[in-house]
What we know:
Layout: H1 10-44, H2 48-76, H3 78-97, H4 102-130, H5 134-165, H6 170-173, H7 175-189, E1 192-194, H8 203-226, H9 230-252, H10 266-296, H11 301-307, H12 312-325, H13 331-349, H14 358-386, H15 392-426, H16 436-444, H17 446-453, H18 458-497, E2 520-522
Antiparallel strand pairs: 1-2
Helix pairs in contact: 1-4, 1-5, 1-7, 2-3, 2-4, 2-8, 2-15, 3-4, 3-7, 4-5, 4-15, 5-11, 5-12, 5-14, 8-9, 8-15, 10-14, 10-15, 10-18, 12-14, 13-14, 13-18, 14-15, 15-18, 16-17, 17-18
Amino acid sequence: MTATNGLAGRRAWAGLAVLLLPxxxxxxxxxxxxxxxxxxSTDLRPSGTQQLWIMDMYSFLLAxxxxxxxxxxxxxxxxxxxxLGAAGFAAASLLAAWSGSAAELIAARAVLGVAGATxxxxxxALIRTMFPDPKQRQAAMGAWTGTLTxxxxxxxxxxxxxxxxxxxxxxxxxxxxxxxxxxxxxxxxLPEYRAPRRGSFDLLGAGLSLATVLPLVYGVKTxxxxxxxxxxxxxxxxxxVAGALFARxxxxxxxxxxxxxxxxxRSYAGSISISTLAMFAMMGFTLFTSQYLQLVKGMSPLTAAxxxxxxxxxxxxxxxxxxxxxxxxxxxxxxAGGFLVGAAGFALMTWVGPHSPLALILTAAGFLxxxxxxxxxxxxxxxxxxxxxxxxxxxxxxxxxxxxxxSSLGIAxLGAAGAAVYKSQLTDRxxxxxxxxxxxxxxxxxxxxxxxxxxxxxxxxxxxLTACQSAFTDGLHLAAWIGLGCLLGGSLLASRLMRHLPKAxxxxxxAPVSTPASPQLSGVGADAGGPA
Length: 532
């Protein structure tokens, strides 16, 4: 895979294409499932609680197990863990597709989450091994980030198309071909990497990691949807306590899951902070964009998903531009510029109204996606480059866990800000004579207003929707201003924290700050992965 000049060869690029398969499947999962939920509800008749667990079990376990699985891959072999995860994901997808009850489907989703946690850190860590050249590695990371973002956009489209022609289980079977190709081609194209250091796996640390992330993600998501409640608040507190215990364990354990000393490396800690902020902004506003297209513009979910493909062209452009600027512009300047592009998208969103042309919000979403994804392409590369080679799996897993929390916080905080404005603005705008039940439903959410409007006389329905859509866009504006401030602050943060980094390909660029241990590669020889 690696030529004598240190550049990756054709086999490495073919291996990258194989690594992008699980990345695409994992990023599509929730979007595909979104369309299947109504059909699942009709067929399996889950309770309200069961339906929530069908949606959330996967993401909770995925987030909670990323760090332990990243560390496990460093110990037993990243390719081995990747292939085990692919086999588990394929088997769980089959179980999910033919589940006969809600309990069976929840169990299958749990296995999918465990298997998914093995895939994400393994893909990033293997890219580190396969592409020792900084410029090539940044291009590979760009492809990885673009695939991750593109899959999230394609998921709803794929789900809508599948459910228009097949039964709900087809939403899970979409993973089978990708995982099959990975199992077939992975042993041929991917190198094995096993950290030279030995030692027992920190089971207590893995348990504390799970006890930290699960309550935090649950608490943030639940408070975002249902508002203040003692149970999710207590979960947040428990997660913070477990996090403190986890940090203490990692500082005192002989074989920690993650080396907290990495956070003393400015490029590592800064990249994780910047990536988390980018996910906060991008995912926090995705909810508004989807609701605007469906509830203000009146599109069906599938039509809205198809229109949402247009902003993704900005992602492709951002990845290409980021690669072209490598070696010419310092990473800190690129990140700062990416955040400024994303901030321009938020600025455009402050002008969006109920009757604005569709092009306005799509252009704004395109700027936001391009700016944030372009920045995350750089941070992904810096995170795996800053960590020693034998810690790359755990390091990338830590980054992905932070991104999960950033995503949840973005949806929670920006969503809460928008909802607060919506409710306060709607109080004096509801039309007179509206039935109490309809008024309560409209006051709860724009979706509730659209539902009750269908049963009202045409004039009353028009007045209600006009008031609710206006209040919704007022909330959108506040969220956009918050996002604008966050990205402007992120641009300043990137320019200050990353100003010391040289251009890609310059002396010392991309090299780990800590001295990496000698990699142990096997399986395909010197031509199959990083340095032999």
